[in-house]
Structure formats: structure tokens, C-alpha cells
Amino acid sequence: MTIRMNPHGSFATPSIFVVEPQILTFTNAQAVGPAGPTLVQCQTAYASDATILASLAVNNGYQSFTIPETGIYQFSVAGAAGGIWLFSPMSTATAALAPTLDGYKRLPGALLVGTYSLTAGQVITMVVGQCGGDDDNDAANCPGGGGGTFVTLGTYAQVVARIDTLLFAAGGGAGSGYQPLDTPVDLYTVGIGQSTTSGGNSTELGGINGNGTVTLPTASNSAGGGGYLTGSGLTTTPDFSYTIPTNSAAVAFRYGAKGGSFTGLTRGYGGFGCGGPGANTASSDDDKGGGGGYSGGGYGFDANAQGGGGGSYANPSVTGISITAGGNVTSKHGYVLIQKME
Prior knowledge:
mainly beta; five-stranded antiparallel beta sheet
């Protein structure tokens, strides 16, 4: 409570001073590509937030945070957008439904909001999705899928041991080349981060039940996104390092969460968070990567197909759930906002 003086010198009626709960904001920390941020990048990004810095650990892009107080927390979890074809990006006229993110029309990630009760000392571990790689080749048109954003209950070591408990996953958007996404509209709705647990169905069927897409990538084609349990091609090979190999599938959350890549960091890679890569070709191919998420989105083959967005998920113990397909209309990268409600 605060006591205010009135202009005549006497005390005014006491008024209640309401302090809004602090919002903790976790981001990609300026990292781009198939691998996540380093500890130094996160420390720089969160330099002004002492609460985060006091309880933060970063391992191979996974950001772990120790809950400081027991209470009910609201989470806002957003997936990343897919990459685009820079040589001929989508225009407002041909993609009116798509938001403008970082100056270009992109297929956005999903937005998920829900509340969950946590106890002081518990640890949550997050993968914040990164935007899929743009393709700057004047002929190829092979952008990568965006990464999904994940929040799990458990330490990084528990994720590696596969004994964590997933709380939230927000699907990433697919890679998108120049095409009239609004005619038909289903090209857009398939490609954004999905509100359902399944990945978006495109040339390739999206993954289901927390899995990546079925098809393994080849250098002459794009690939679908990875999921929580398995990566592209239902792979379960661990890859937690910062090395970005070429000709690689998207990796599942429980095995490293890397985006797939045929080209390293040069073009068309899948974003960190299990995003699928676009094809590696210098000629006209028009193959787009699927988005990562709870289940991976299918890849898009040739000009008239659109990649599929990643699926989303909320744990059955979460309350007040709201999932909006393509709801991240403010950032091409994902994010996690955490606010203690009571």
C-alpha cells in the first residue's frame, strides 16, 4: 500500500499499488540455424534479467531454468516460422493471410497458452524454435522448415535419459516458396504451425503421436520435420553437439532437436527445434522443408505443393489451454513467456 500527499499538503486516501507479476522471457538468444544458442549467447540476451540468470543452465541449445517459487505459472509458447525463397518472396497480393515477419511474408509457428502448477526447485528445460533457413538461390526455391518450441519438466540430463515429462510443444511453420498461398487457402493452413498434435499433411503425410515424418531425407529432395520422440524418417540417433553435418535429418527433441541440413548454414536449413531442410540443389526443384513440433510436418515437393507445419501439444495436466494455429505473428523465431499467476 502507498500513501500519497494531496496538493494541499494533507494525506490523500490510501490507494492500493498493484505490482504486475514478472514475465520471464526466453528466446533464441540471437542464435540462427539448425543448432541452438550457447550459454554465452543466452547470458548476453538475458543480461538485464537477474531472475533468469540466477537459475539458468544451457547445454547444446537446451535452456534449463530452476523454478524459484512454488505457484501456478502461465506459459505462452510460440513456434518459429519457416524460411522463404529470397529470390522471389511471397507478396502481400499472393499471401494475404501470412504475417510479415522480418520484412517477408512467412508461414508462422503456432501459439500455445496454458497454466501449470510448479514447485520451487523443479527444473524445466526448453528448446526455443529458430526460423527455417531462407533460400537465396535464383532457381532452386528450397527453403527450410521452422523449429518447434518445447517446454519439458526435467533437467537436461533427464531429457538425454528420456525420462522428462513434456508440458508444451508449439509447432513451427513450413518453408514457403513463391506461390499463391491463398488460392487455395489450404496451402496456407497446412503450412502454418498446427493446433493439432499431428503435423500438417503435404506431399508427405505429417508425423503423428509425437513422431517425425516417415521419409528419410536425400540430398536431391527436402525432408519433413522431426517430433518430440523421433526425427525425420522416425530416426532416434542422438546428436546433441553443435556440429552441423550436411545431408542430415531433423533430430527429435529427445535426441538433440537439431534442424535438418544439407548445406550447413548457407541456405535452406531446418531451424533448431526439429525443422526439416529444403533440398540441396542449384537448379529448379521447389522442395520445401516441413516444420518441427510435437509431430513433424510433411515436406512439400515441387512448385504446387506446400510443406506442412509441425504439430502442437499440451500435457493433460495443463489448464486453461488455448492453441492457435499460426498464432505467432510477431516473431520469425519462437519464444517462451512464463508468468507466476498465484
